[in-house]
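Re: the 169-residue chain
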Amino acid sequence: MIKRYFYFLFFILIGFNSYAETTVNFVDIKFLIDQSNSGKKINELLIDLRKKETSKLKKMQTNLKKQESEIKSKNNILSKEELEKNITKLKTNINDYNNLKNKKEIEFNKKKTEYMNKLLLEINKIMISYIDKNSIDIVIKKENLVTGKKELDITKYILDELNKKKINF
């Protein structure tokens, strides 16, 4: 008797859940980052920053090579103490160069992360606004989607709204 009530209750609950309507859309975040005005600006800023750092590091590298060649050319002329002193100085300069290179790489990655987080925060704000206006239940990243109707893709709308915003980096 209890089993009958359980099955009866079970089928009634399943019947109510089957009438629930869920609105699902998807968005291409990578496309938004690559094609938005803000994303392009971030890319330009990062490329410029990388070029400046690379040119400074190349100058230092050239100076280190010059020091090394001077030491090699004066190898027979210098006393053993002076030679060791110059080699120690060169090793110190090489270590300083490597430390600076690592530091610059870390700073670059921090800046890149900061810019991307700021952009993703704006994308998220726009998506939340769109979701609220259109009563959407779920938004899935396009990368995680197998297939879907083109009408469910909200990327173009989000891109248009993102391009209207001025984001300072």
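The chain has a mean pLDDT of 87.
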